[in-house]
Design brief:
This protein has about 475 residues and is mainly beta. Helices cover about 5% and strands about 50% of the residues. A hairpin with a 5-residue loop joins strand 35 and strand 36.
């Protein structure tokens, strides 16, 4: 609720009293000269010459009218002073938004609400037809329009424009029309096209995106000068990469927000995706754009069945990782699975049915590495024979967690070994040798799981069923 000033009413009453005391004792007075009569400005429609607007209101809205253009977009259209007076700027975020109040002569005021922009300084003297703002939807409103009021000494009056009282109320848009003659007479108050203001656009959405997931993008549009005032009711286009685009109109705070339903961008060496926000400009504002580099989440993984270095006499045994997926790096869903190796036999060790694969998914990004062997037998010189069956090692990483597991049945020197379900369970083999079951090594981005890791004298090193996964660009 706005509190109205009553100073103008008191002034009017004093003027009336003075007229009563000084009026001639004889003669016939016209209606305009009668005591208590206040001169009403010849209000014109608050729009450009010859433009046509439709107006309406609704029950309980009071003696006010809402205007929208009969043809074309209302947003950004110039708003003109209905009559000469003093213009003051106001802002009511939960009501009229940005609005101008013009104080005219003899207690009359007009108000112009939900403006997108102010075009006159606070306290400026304006002539009839001066551009005072542009149509917008700031404040409590569902779309661009001009809310217009006429008051006498703080009391709403039936609205009269272009010499006609526009009652009765209410009505619907498209039922009643008015054509403006404001500024058509060529007076100095004729409206000039609004001077385009410089704008600034800044991206303020997420810094990281993930393929297969939605991307809520946003940018803020403000005036470049004048304290960075927000620019409302303007369309901003946000483009991710080269081919994914969404559009949104700025709100009262100048923010435009829209969502790419599912990101689908290629993974580059830098793992980034270009982002561009664009405002095309209009009669009131110059175009502007903003760019950013967003991080693209991606995953990596590797799995192999077995690797070994065994320094036996005469001919050392060296087995490269077999079978091996190699390093997998992707932001998409895929599976890498080299052909399984049926058998490895190398004097002191044998292994059967070795397989490895890495599977990745999106929305969110996930990497799962898995390696398996059906059977392993290892007899290092001077150590008990190690046998294992049903060997599986897996590692899974997302941006929120990394987990790993190992399954196997283990026998040492013919005796079954009960292995607890914990990482890094170590068994001393004597002579400086050991076997680690479910060996897990964590990094900042992921996890490596080795089902078995056997080390012995002379640098012997055997890794059985190794799986690594990681997630990157998570922050």
């Amino acid at each position: 609720m706005r509190i109205k000033r009553r100073g103008t009413l008191l002034t009017g009453l004093l003027t009336t009293l003075a007229l009563a005391l000084t009026a001639p004792a004889t003669g016939t007075a016209s209606a305009a000269d009668e005591p208590g009569t206040l001169a009403k400005p010849a209000f014109l429609a608050p729009f450009e010459c010859d433009s046509v607007w439709t107006y309406s209101t609704y029950p309980d809205h009071g003696n006010v009218l809402d205007f929208v253009k009969a043809e074309g977009a209302s947003a950004g259209a110039p708003v003109l002073a209905s009559a000469a007076g003093t213009a003051t700027r106001h802002n009511q975020p939960d009501g009229g938004g940005q609005y101008i109040r013009i104080t005219h002569a003899d207690g009359w005021t007009t108000e112009y609400m939900h403006l997108a922009t102010y075009e006159v300084a606070d306290g400026a003297q304006v002539a009839q037809g001066t551009v005072i703002g542009t149509v917008g939807s700031t404040g409590n409103t569902t779309g661009p329009h001009l809310h217009y009021e006429q008051e006498l000494n703080g009391v709403h009056q039936d609205i009269e424009l272009e010499g006609n009282v526009l009652t009765p109320y209410p009505s619907e848009y498209g039922e009643k029309f008015i054509t403006s003659t404001n500024g058509c007479d060529g007076d100095p108050g004729d409206p000039d096209p609004p001077v385009q203001k410089d704008t600034a656009l800044a991206y303020d959405g997420p810094a990281t995106i993930s393929n297969g997931s939605p991307a809520p993008l946003s940018a803020k549009l403000t005036e470049k000068d004048g304290g960075g005032a927000p620019v409302a009711d303007r369309e901003v286009t946000l483009t991710l990469g080269t081919d994914q685009t969404c559009k949104a109109k700025t709100d009262a705070a100048g923010k435009a927000a829209c969502t790419i339903a599912a990101v689908a961008q290629p993974l580059t060496d830098s793992a980034t995706v270009p982002l561009k926000a664009t405002f095309a400009g209009d009669e009131a504002y110059k175009p502007s754009e903003a760019t950013a580099e967003l991080k693209l989440q991606y995953v990596t993984g590797r799995a192999y069945g077995l690797s070994a270095t065994v320094p036996v006499l005469v001919l050392p045994i060296v087995i490269a990782p077999t079978p091996d997926t190699g390093e997998v790096r992707t932001a998409d869903a895929r599976t890498v699975a080299p052909a399984c190796t049926q058998n490895i036999s190398a004097v002191v060790l044998t292994a059967d049915a070795l397989c490895a694969n890495v599977t990745t998914t999106t929305g969110p990004s996930t990497s799962t590495a898995k390696s398996t062997l059906t059977k392993l037998s290892l007899g290092l010189p001077g150590l008990p024979v190690i046998e294992a069956t049903g060997i599986t090692a897996s590692s899974t990483s997302t941006c929120t967690a990394s987990t790993g597991t190992t399954d196997l049945k283990l026998t040492i020197a013919g005796t079954p070994v009960t292995v607890p379900d914990i990482p890094d369970y170590a068994i001393d083999l004597g002579a400086g040798a050991k076997v680690v079951v479910n060996e897990q090594t964590r990094t900042a981005t992921g996890l490596t799981v080795n089902a078995l890791h056997i080390s012995g004298l002379g640098g012997a090193d055997v890794v059985v069923a190794s799986s690594t996964s990681a997630a990157h660009n998570c922050a």
